[in-house]
Amino acid sequence: MVESVARFLCPTAVFGDVNIVLIVPDGVGLRNVVLGNVARALDDRHNVTILHAVPDHLVADFRCHAGADVEWESLTPYGESPLAFCLRHTISYAHMYAANTRGMRLRLMRPVTGSWRTRTVHRAAKALGRCLAFPTAVDRIERVYFRYVQTRPEVSAYGDCLRRIKPDVICCSHQRPPIVLPPILAARNMGISTTTAIFSWDNLTSKSRIVAPFDSYLVWSELMKQEFLKIYQSVPANRIHIVGTPQFDAYANSNLLWSRKVFCDHIGAAGDKTLICYSGGDRYTSPDDQDYVRNIMELIRCGRIAGSPQMIVRPAPVDDGARFDAVRRDFPEIIYCRPAWSKVRPQDWAASLPTASDVQFIANLTHHADLNVNVASTMTIDFAIHDKPVVNIAYDVHDPPRFGVRLWDYYYKYDHYQPVIELGAARFAHSPEMLAEHINTYLRDPSLDRENRKKLVTLELGTTLGRSAALLANTLEQIGR
Fold it and tell me: CB within 10 Å: which end of the chain, N or C, has fewer?
């Protein structure tokens, strides 16, 4: 009561502005924090600095979306030493062996690629990680790793930076890039609160360990919170905050939507025909996308998919699209919609940077397309938000299979995808014939599985659609207070 009265009488004088630093190491973070309006929501009330990895000539493209008073500073390059590289991967392997989720077991099956030095270090780290696969051992070697990195000059440089900025809280948009470790260690030395967002639904159960010792964590939903508590048992529940994810907020903004005619004119489609969208993955995680697109086009041409629907192909933002060239030549009727992202380095998610125009385009694509096809993609949620049916491809086009086991036994065994299967929020095609059958069924009656899609969205989003940026900003304000 006293605090409420004081805040009403003299909010700034009593409590002051909160100084907030946002660490945004990659393009997905820019999409969520900057284009997703988190920075603008904070800038309206507080002092905000963004530490970023955007090339100088592209910073201006994002400034206008973050708020007029936001300060932008480049992250200090972090050259990871061989010992730090080995320690980090040892911790990651030990963490995955200890947590032992289905996703991690599948990840541990993947062959190591790269130079002979990289392969050698990974093999050594994996062997050592297997020996250290219990929580207390992981915690101990992690402390050794942090103490070693603590001696790096980058940590000292960030100390000088943070003493100048004087932040009350630091929030990182991604929990795994090694480049975020030095500023977080510097903040810990100075007693500054730190937090990070778990930026994707599969990151806890199928990816390696969180890279830095954050004080608190921002998750999408109660489901993700329970996953966190199960895997990171030493973290108290009160340090985990449910804030949703800003990546879906644009879907609640009706001002971004075009009419169907404008959308179809924009992509060169006929407005009176059904639109099927194929959402691709990157060439490493979904290497057969071009073959699945060919299957669909053959099914359309021969009439197995009824009604001569139009096919939209949207590759992953990191994909250069070259692997679709042959199928596009053979089927020129394909509507190819390359994401409007800047690629600073080819095939590198961290160096692929989004644009506001692409945020608007994907909002319209998910709104106007009649059906989506993908391979175990997050786009299943995007289209479910708009109540659009989704068919997941679950058959192989190569023998032996790409990942050493059948596609169904690989991607569809990952923990994060089990709710999609268990809720019946999508249908699964185990053959090209079944793919045609599911597409025809959904196009005849798009309302099929509607309640299941709603349940998936409610389970995964955790908050009201369109409110995540505001909730995340309020949470950072509370932590900073």
Answer: N
